[in-house]
Fold this sequence. Notes:
By secondary structure, the chain is an alpha+beta fold.
Amino acid sequence: MTEYVVVMYRLREGVTADDYVRWSQETDQQITPGLEPIRRFQVLSVTETIEGADNGTFDVIEVIEVTSADAWKEGNASEYMAQIQEEWPRYADPGTAIVVAATEIPPAASSD
């Protein structure tokens, strides 16, 4: 069963989208995919809240396919991720972050 960690957050006040994108591309997306439990790492910039909270709830969504959420948690706290852990709060507002573990709901088997 495929497991995911999904991280959603707002940018820190005063941080521009360009500032964040530059850091994401030059640092986060260079280091984070190398964490052993990560199979795939996608960083999405929210362009519009189509329905729901009208205050632009999140600016960034990270969709991370992992070997297991527990392995990701352990790896995320490791020395390998120290630079990300130190720099991320300069760009993101940690107080707005929501982190969830999820598994894929596969489509029903065809009855053909």
